[in-house]
Amino acid sequence: MGIKEDVEDGVKKNGIREPLISDHASNKGHPWMVYFTTLVAVCGSYEFGTCAGYSSPTQDAIRTDLGLSLAEYSLFGSILTFGAMIGAITAGPIADLIGRKGAMRVSSAFCVAGWLVIFFSEGPIPLDIGRLATGYGMGSFSYVVPVFIAEIAPKELRGALTALNQFMICGAVSVSFVIGNVLPWRTLALIGLIPTGVLLLGLFIIPESPRWLAKRGRGKEFEAALRTLRGKDADISQEADEIQDYITSLEQLPKPKLLELFQTRYLRSVTIGIGLMVCQQFGGINGICFYLSSIFELAGFSAFAGTVIYACLQIVITGLGAALIDKAGRKPLLLISGTGLVAGCIFTAAAFYLKVHEVGLGAVPALALIGILVYIGSFSLGMGAVPWVVMSEIFPINIKGLAGSVATLVNWFGAWLCSYTFNFLMSWSSYGTFIVYAAINAVAIVFIIVVVPETKGKSLEELQASINA
């Protein structure tokens, strides 16, 4: 369904003019520059994955070489999340001020500095400083990359191209796990520089986000960037007019402050964006990912074999989700994903229930493996990528920096809280932990059914106007 039927030729609601629906029929031949620009941008996503995947395979080597205690290494691993929270808070305003490409350059600079500090570290303090810096870059990338891709992509490709963000993160984490077990930890830190190097070189070639240029009043650069992305011979006049008209109507509104995000005008989009981040993180994903080996060991299954199967499945299913997102839609994938998360948690809870009560012990390893694989497969299909896709789509450009930063901060806070509380929950009750996660994912399904709209096949302007009308 399109925008409200009673809106015609420039009628405004809440001070925002809803754009007319446009098929952009002349732009069906998606030129290579859209794909190339996306591939450059997702180097930032790959860098995100290298940062996240670094600490697990290097733990024993770093502790041995530098004589770190378990507490010192735990700080090294967890301080990444605090850096990401700082990156999340500042990424939106920076991207609004100096552009999406500028924000990616800033993120890359922090990652480069962080990896070099880690490489030359001879003690815990430089390690932590380097890890904090890479965390900042990671948190910033987590916001700016999906936003940039959503703003450059044609509406019929936007979901798939934005979902590449999650695919590259998963791929990088898996690669880091594999090569980190065979390479020295200092060499692995230097390898972390490669994605940022490719990204920084590519940023000299690709165009800036046309929507950001339009918002900054840089009309000629806006049209040049849009033409570069849509193709030399494409008719961009209708799309350009729609973007310009919508941004002009938004600019007539006062620039919102933090508390004003929760006014009626923006409340639905903010609720959707933050709510999906809560659904993604509080359902247990980071606790399960961070302590996957211990889960398998507790269930009596090989930690190495389970982790390798987990990593391979994650990459395959994330790719499948990216291929389906513009065909099946965002909401169906979220609902299927949520249902699978509940089922995976129930299988795993059942495995640990049997173990605790010493009933059917022979079935425990297989049941736990099935539960974890169902869980991660379901998460990778929808709940991993789709919240980032939807977040990049639903916020009007005048609040995108502030609202996107808040949503990203909520995501990183949830990641930290879930990973921090996981061991405490498991000490309380191994099967009870997964029952709690199943209940949270069930609530997430209700939230998706009631609150989250379908966003596929609509221009950003059409979608944002209909949500915030």
Low-confidence stretches: 1-29
The total of helices stands at 21
Q: What is the radius of gyration computed over CA atoms, rounded to a whole number of angstroms?
A: 22 Å
- Order of strands side by side in the largest beta sheet? 1-2
Class per helix and strand makeup? mainly alpha
Distance from first to last alpha carbon: 15 Å
Overall pLDDT score = 87
Order of SSEs: EEHHHHHHHHHHHHHHHHHHHHH
Taken as a percent bin, the fraction of beta residues is under 5%
Described by strand count, sense and barrel closure, the largest sheet is:
2 strands, antiparallel
The coarse overall form would be globular
Q: Helical amount among residues, as a percent range? A: over 70%
Work out the number of β strands.
2
Please summarize what this structure is:
This protein is mainly alpha-helical and 469 residues long.
Structural commentary:
- With 469 residues, this protein is mostly helical.
- The chain has helices at residues 32-52, 55-66, 70-98, 100-119, 124-152, 158-180, 185-191, 193-202, 210-215, 219-230, 237-251, 264-282, 285-290, 292-299, 303-328, 330-356, 364-383, 386-394, 400-428, 430-451, 460-468; strands spanning 12-13, 16-17.
- A two-stranded antiparallel sheet has the order 1-2.
- Helix 1 (32-52) packs parallel to helix 4, helix 5 runs antiparallel to helix 6 and helix 12 (264-282) packs parallel to helix 19.
What layout of secondary structure does this protein have?
Blueprint: E1 12-13, E2 16-17, H1 32-52, H2 55-66, H3 70-98, H4 100-119, H5 124-152, H6 158-180, H7 185-191, H8 193-202, H9 210-215, H10 219-230, H11 237-251, H12 264-282, H13 285-290, H14 292-299, H15 303-328, H16 330-356, H17 364-383, H18 386-394, H19 400-428, H20 430-451, H21 460-468
Antiparallel strand pairs: 1-2
Helix pairs in contact: 1-4, 1-5, 1-6, 1-8, 2-3, 3-4, 3-5, 3-19, 4-5, 4-7, 4-8, 5-6, 5-18, 6-15, 6-18, 12-18, 12-19, 12-20, 14-15, 15-16, 15-17, 16-17, 16-20, 19-20
